[in-house]
Structure formats: structure tokens, C-alpha cells
Amino acid sequence: MDLLEYQGKQLFAKHGIPVSSGKAVTTVDDAVAAANEIGYPVVVKAQVLIGGRGKAGGVKLAANEAEAREHASSILGLDIKGHITRTVWIEAASDIATEYYASILLDRSAKQPMLMFSTEGGVEIETVAEETPEKLIKFHIDALNGLTRDEARKVVEQGGADADVLDQLADLLVKLYEVWLQEDASLAEINPLIITPDRIVKALDAKVSLDDNASFRHPEHEGLGDTANADPIELKAKEQDVVYVKLDGNIGVLGNGAGLVMSTLDVVAQAGGEPANFLDAGGGSDAEKIEQAVELILSNENVKAVLFNIFGGITRCDEVAKGLIAAFAKIQPTVPFVVRLDGTNDVQGRELLHEAALPNVHAATTMNDAAAQVVALAKGA
Ligand code: GDP
Ligand code: MN
To answer: Would you say residue 277 has pLDDT above 70?
Structure first.
């Protein structure tokens, strides 16, 4: 789960990383009231899950109440690369002498956490990595020992940070690692990490992604993320405990087991189609769960055909067939279905489907055959 900037900053503050105080608001009047309370100048910042807000007009300084009103009006509702701004964060403006970059993420190939630091902050780090890779310092962290202050200090020194702020930077990075570890983040990034003219180090931006697999350890994270812009189908799926990810295509996909569903998406793409979703019905899904899943898939209006790819292990193919039959009785889908049942009780499952004679349901025996059929049906529709 990706956090909005202000939510990331609140986690930073909890771990002692210096940030400016501010307030998150959703209306122009509340923005002005917050700005008056904080005192001018303030910065008005769009809270959307996309970088480059500054360039897109989503970050503006206001020197007085009139400007605060003007900027809040222009930023609330602003479309930044497809993300509509529903919330703005108002914070005390900072004076900037220097902009650095710092992040901690998981380097999957090295199987270790990695600290990155650069004195080239405030610009896209991908650009720095590409054009001046020597200015991006990477340091692998020993997961058992954690990041020590000495290690952090060496990294920023090697990166060419100003000598008078090395200690402050090292302290901040140790805390950033604490955020990453204790909050179960997969990314904790600060860009820019600023030095003020009076030589205070501070996080001016925050990009934090939390690992959803650890959310059970963090009831306090409930409600974080960009809930106002969340996809309604994905929200409903979450409520029903179904693993569903909306995609851009028109072929609904249901499978059991994340690996099988991923391969199904690949096979559909290989056959020239575009999946409309990822849906893992999970192991041992019963008829009721399948019925729910069909409703979810079909609530996406782009769906022109649906592919069921079931490999029965714990999941019994006859249960899947029963779920599909129940779903058809309830919602009477108007789009064609291609169903491949293989594995536990597949014969019984196919028999059930055959007897039910559901309209516009096509059987397939292999995954490739199923994909070819569903792509043809989606194109014909
Ligand atoms: P991003 O464009 O989405 O990465 O948003 P940032 O939060 O990084 O803000 C973009 C840029 O706005 C920063 O790199 C700063 O140059 C500028 N900015 C943000 N906050 C302040 C502030 O408090 N004071 C000043 N002077 N500039 C700011
Ligand atoms: Mn930034």
C-alpha cells in the first residue's frame, strides 16, 4: 500500500525524523483556516499517489491568506496524471539551502535492505541513476545488525554531503531505517531531504509504501492510503477478502492460486488479449466464493468475456462449477465465459456444467486453448 505524503510524514515524525508541521484538509475554507493557524508563508501540496506534483502545479507557496485561498482552489480537484486531488496538505514553508535524496528499500536480487543517498535531490532519482550514477551511493544493510550510525555517516560522507551536517544526516538515516523496519515498509524515500539556511536537516517530501502482507501486525495503519481515489471494485473485493487487482483490458480472469492467475494473465496477453483484472479465488474456494468473484469481475463494465482457469488441488472443480451455475442463476451474465477445469473432480465439474447448459459458456481443455477462445470471443463482442 502506498501512502500519501502527509501520512508518510506522520510516520516519519513518529520515529523522530524532522518534518514541518501541517494539516490535511479537503476544502478550500479548511485550507485557508489551516494556513492562518500555521502562519505564513505556507506550502499547499496536492496529496496524490504520484510523483512530480511540483511540476504539475500541485505544490505552491502562499505568502498570505489570499494566495492560500487561490492555491487551495486551484489544487483541490486538480488532475495530476490521472489522479484527482481530494486532499491538500498545508505546512509551514521551509527555506531551502540544499536538496539531497535518501531512501531505503528492499533490494530483492541482493536479498538485503538497501540505503541510497545522493546530493542530487529534488529531481527524479531515475535521472540521476542514469546520467550520473556515481552520484547515487548505494549501501546494503545487514538485516541482522541493522544500520549503524557509523555506516550511515560514511555513506553520506562518501556521497559528498556538507561536512557540517554529516551527524544530523546519519541520525536521520538511522531513523529512516527504523521507519522502514518497524512499520514494515517496502520503501521509505525522502526527496528532497533538505538543509535549511540555518543548517537544519528535514524531510520535505515523503514516499512510503507499506508491505500489505504485514498489515496484520499494524492495526494502527488501518485507513491509510489514498482511500478517496481507491477503485470501488478493489475496495469491495477487500471487504470480501478476495484478492482482486483491476487492470486496463477487457478480459475478466479468475483462477485459483496467485501463480496460476499470473500465468493466465501472461497466456491471455500472449494470445493477443488484454486482461481486465487479476482475481485469485484462492485454494479451496467454495460455490459461494465463486459466485462473489463472478459478481466482482462483471461489475467492471469493460469486461467483454471471462476466462475461468481452475486447476483443482484443494479446490474442487465441482464446487467451482456449482458456484458458476449459482452465479448465472443470480446475475445472468451477458458476456461469454470460457471455462477450463482440470484436476480434483474435474470430470464431475464438467458434467455439472454440461447438464446446466449455461448460455454462452464454452469449455476448454488446455490453458492455451482457453486463452485463444476467450481472446476471440472478446474481440467478437
Ligand atoms: P513532488 O514534486 O511530487 O516530488 O513534490 P515535493 O514535495 O518534492 O515538492 C516539489 C518541490 O517543491 C520541492 O523539490 C521543492 O523544491 C519545492 N518545495 C516543496 N516544499 C517547499 C517549501 O516548504 N519551501 C520551498 N521553498 N520549496 C518547497
Ligand atoms: Mn518530491
So the answer is: yes
